[in-house]
Amino acid sequence: MDFKDYYKILGVERGASEDEVRKAYRKLARKYHPDVSKEPDAEVRMRDVNEANDVLRDKEKRAAYDQLADHVARGGSPEGGFQAPPGWDEGFEFHRGPNQGPADHADFSEFFSSMFGAAEQRGAQRRNYRARGEDHHAAIEIALEDALNGAEREITLRSQQIDAQGRPELKTRTLSVKIPPGVHPGQFIRLAGQGMPGHGGEPAGDMYLEVRIAPHKLYRIEDRDLYMTLPITPTEGALGAQVQVPTPGGGVVEVTVPRNARNGLKLRLKERGLPGKPPGHLYLLLEIALPPADTEAARAAYEQLAKAAPFDPRRHLGV
Hints:
alpha+beta, 11 strands
């Protein structure tokens, strides 16, 4: 059995605060949760992350673990594998986490079970434990229109819970979610009381939904701003023009293309992006589309243009 470095697993320093541990756990939970992760070892990594969080978020467990880590650092782990010194947990009163039963850590590692499994049971017998339920995290994908206007959606989530016999089981539930206008990718929607049940009469934890916005056929999202490619003709780019553009809200506006507009020029439509304080903008990226020379008249027009307005786009290459 190997010693597990829980600080390394969460990517935090040994002196990390409780808030830093919580943030590190949330970040890794979003990355490795089996329901959303595409990592090949997501299930194992998620187990290690949950295990590290279980220890480092609990003051008594963390203090005992730090003492154990110091023992290992002093050469207390023999060549045949890690072994805890006798009486290593004396003076520490471990308790079980929210809504935990006998098999609650069945999927945790041999290291965790040997260190904290029996110790937790002894601590639970010595006192009645009270604690708020753990928070849960999941991802929700919505349409851009939902982010613009707000919506109410039903989502189905899967989570592992403990049955009456203390065995873990996978349960499915459906929640109604109100999506506020102006929500943007990476933002969290909090559902109060929808996490794990509390223990000893304490309140349940919360559910945090990370917002993801599905790709849109016209618009690309960056924070609260929206970007759209606007095709224009060479004539419109050279001479300037008034063109009509669809807006995310469903309307149409007339936009001025300036004379001698270049490919990639960015035009801004103020406060036409996602709503908020302040609201985002809509940026139009000009893309000059060349008419095909697929008729005699079109070829003749191109030849006449070449003669009337000679132009060498490669002159800066010096060849």
